[in-house]
Amino acid sequence: MIKTEEIKFESQGDGEIFDLTGQIAEKIKSSGLNSGTVTVFTPSATSAITTIEYEPGLLQDLPEFFQKIIPAEVSYKHDETWHDGNGYAHLRAALIGPDITVPIVEGKMTLGTWQQIVFLDFDNRARSRKVIVQIIGE
Ligand code: ZN
User: Fold this and answer.
1) C-alpha 132 – ligand 1 centre gap (Å)
2) Dist. CA 16 → ligand 1 center (Å)
3) Mean pLDDT along residues 106-113
4) What are phi and psi of 68, to 5 degrees?
5) pLDDT tens, position by position, 64-97
6) For residue 53, how far is its CA from the centre of ligand 1 (angstroms)?
7) Which residues, 6 or more positions from 58, have their beta carbon under 8 angstroms from its beta carbon?
8) What is the predicted pLDDT for the residue at 83?
9) Average pLDDT over residues 23-46
10) Residues with a beta carbon under 5 angstroms from ion ligand 1
């Protein structure tokens, strides 16, 4: 069985972090699938998917970490191409990557207790976002 779904939401951008774990778990539950994998993918070049412990400290640490390694104020070649000022957002998205795949066992994702699936929006403006959730298995 292959089931492909979407999660849609409005984002403010600028490093906003969304916990998608609950919505993904709901889609797996309603699919009735017992064993397989779920792939979560963002079709965007300025956002990323990863896991963190979704708690207030890390929600501050993570943006600070990105600011240290890929500062927003630095001029990047991409900004000369498009003048959209979000070269840093593309680089941060490339570093983290657009997807994650999680095994499903007995109808549930095999995530650790403190491991949430998060969407990171690095862009420098608000926009409508869409994430693809594809469930494969039996
Ligand atoms: Zn751009």
Assistant:
1) 21
2) 17
3) 98
4) -70, -45
5) 999 999 999 999 999 998 888 999 999 999 999 9
6) 29
7) 52
8) 87
9) 97
10) 84, 86
